[in-house]
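Thread: quick sanity check before group meeting

JM: Hey all, I'm pulling together slides for Thursday and realized we never actually wrote out the predicted structure for the chain we discussed last week. Dropping the sequence here so it's in one place. If anyone has concerns about the input, flag it before I start.
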Amino acid sequence: MSQPTPGGGATRAEASPPDPSKASTAQLLADLSDQVTRLVRDEVRLAQAEVTGKAKRLGVGAGLFGGAGLVALLGLNALITAAILGLAAVLPGWLAAVIIAVVLFAVAAVLALVGRKDVQQAAPPLPTETIESVKTDVATVKERGSR
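JM (edit): ok, ran it. Output follows.
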């Protein structure tokens, strides 16, 4: 007796299906069970293939965004250098560089303060509104259940 190959599926599915009008109820239920199982497996395989394809595209897109960010940072560095060289035309070079550095540190401080405020408002990272809604729902159910 030969062993079925793994992943080969049932050989019965390859044969032509019996006439449903002549099949017994038990046979129809068995066929239905096999068909539903096969359908679910096929849908899972399709979902896996779709998610894999989307994940690959997401990875490529994220890499391109990272590259764009790096190139933008280099462009910003070039603009900062141009600002220093522009000020160096009227001031000593070291003083122009210090002025631009102070301006950049001031911008960084403002961004840090705004970011800190947003982080403090977001803490704790719990869905507090949802928790309150669930508590209200539980209280309503308890109230109606005690009537």
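AS: nice. The helical segments are 25-88, 93-122, 128-145. The chain is about 75% helix and 0% strand.
JM: adding both to the slides.
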